[in-house]
């Protein structure tokens, strides 16, 4: 029999990885043509590349904050959004996606082993639970924007 704590941890890990009620990033990007990564649809302020990078930067920041008392967050909002609308090349795209995946798994490892309710000592009241919910909520929000852009581009199933 699982404890209530184990049930909460398992459900939040599912939420972090995507699925259930929210599609994950990999599924949202599946089949995306390379030339569509940097396209900015009319009247939208960002491209899919800029959204992917924003997810990467914000998630990295939340992970580092959770791990490191000496971490300095990027300047909001300027350093959370890249100016370039498209990745420099396929390697930049793949590196960004790999960092998102790796950082997420590092956070999940931390989430599974830490007291998720204990306040982060160098924070202002944040807990690992709060950071997990923020990572999941933030990613879900921007993944939905990626899907909208793909629909506007006509390349989403």
UniProtKB/TrEMBL annotation:
Residues 26-146 form the DinB-like domain. It comes from the Bacteria. The lineage of its organism: Bacteria, Pseudomonadati, Bacteroidota, Sphingobacteriia, Sphingobacteriales. It comes from Mucilaginibacter ximonensis. InterPro entries: DinB-like, DinB/YfiT-like. Signal peptide: none annotated. This is DinB family protein. It holds the Pfam family DinB_2.
């Amino acid at each position: 029999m699982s404890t209530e704590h184990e049930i909460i941890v398992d459900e939040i890990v599912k939420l972090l990885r995507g699925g259930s009620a929210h599609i994950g990033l990999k599924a949202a990007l599946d089949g995306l043509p390379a030339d569509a990564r940097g396209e900015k649809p009319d009247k939208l302020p960002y491209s899919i590349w800029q959204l992917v990078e924003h997810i990467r930067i914000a998630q990295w920041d939340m992970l580092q904050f959770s791990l490191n008392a000496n971490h300095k967050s990027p300047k909001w909002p300027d350093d959370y959004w890249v100016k370039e609308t498209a990745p420099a090349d396929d390697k930049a795209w793949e590196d960004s996606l790999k960092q998102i995946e790796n950082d997420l798994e590092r956070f999940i490892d931390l989430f599974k082993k830490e007291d998720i309710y204990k306040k982060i000592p160098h924070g202002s009241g944040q807990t690992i639970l709060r950071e997990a919910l923020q990572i999941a909520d933030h990613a879900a929000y921007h993944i939905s924007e990626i899907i909208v852009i793909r629909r506007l581009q006509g390349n989403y199933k």
